[in-house]
Amino acid sequence: MSASTVRGTIAGMGQRANPAFAVGVVAVALAALAYATTMASIQHHTYVHVMAGVLWTGTDLFIGVILGPVIGGLDEEASAAVFERLTPKTAFFLPSMAFLTIATGIPLALRLGVFPNAGPWLALFTLFNVVPILLLLGWRLNAFDDWRWQVPFAVGTVGSLVWVGLTIGTFQMIEPALAVALVLVTLLSVQGFGFLMPGEIRIYKQMVSPAPDASVISAIGQQNAKLGGLQGLVQLVLIADMVYLRYGGF
C-alpha cells in the first residue's frame, strides 16, 4: 500500500467518520498526552491515563461482548451496513485511546518510581512492539515489496536493536507485576495495531471498491469485534495487575 493510498484511506475514513469527530479525537488525545507528560501533576497525569484506559477497555468490551453478538445475528447485508458505519469511527477512536493509555502509562510509572532501571526494558519493549507490528502490517496489507514499508521496517528494526544493544548490559529484573504489565501491553499493542487496524483498512477498501462484497465486510467486522472483546478481557487482567503493582494487593 503506497503512501498516497494510506493518506487517501485516512482521509476517506475521516470523511465517513465525520471530519470533526476524526480530527477531534486525535487532537484531544495528543493534547491530553502533551499535558499529562509535561505540565500535569501526578494526580492529573493519573486521571488522563486511567480515563483513556477506561474508554479503551469499555469500548472494546462493549463491541466484543454486546454489539458483536447482536450484529452476528444479522444477515450479511445488515451486518455489513453496521460495520460500514461503525468502522470509520472506531478506526480513529480506539487507536487514539490505546496510544494515549500506553504513552501516558510508562511516564507515569517512571514518575511514581515503580519502574527502576527502565532503559533496557523500554528498549526490549520497543523491539517487541515495533518489529511484530510492522511485519503484520506488511503482511496484511501486502506491502512487503513496497519501499514505503521497507524503509520504516528497516529503520524501526535497526533502531530498536541498536537501543537494545546499548542498554542490555545494565539489564536487571524488575517487579514481576511490572514485567507482566509490559507483556500484556505488548500483546494488546501488537493485536490492535497489527490485526485490528489492518482489518479496518480492509473493510474501508471494500466499502469504496466498485463492487463492495457484504460478506467480506461482515466477516472482517465480526472478526474484529471478537478480537476487540478479547482485548477488553486482557485489559481487565492488565487493570488488576496495575492495581496490584500500585497498591501491593487487592
From TrEMBL:
Keywords: Membrane, Transmembrane, Transmembrane helix. The chain crosses the membrane at residues 20-42, 48-71, 92-112, 118-139, 151-171, 177-197. This is Uncharacterized protein. It comes from Haloarcula salinisoli. The lineage of its organism: Archaea, Methanobacteriati, Methanobacteriota, Stenosarchaea group, Halobacteria.
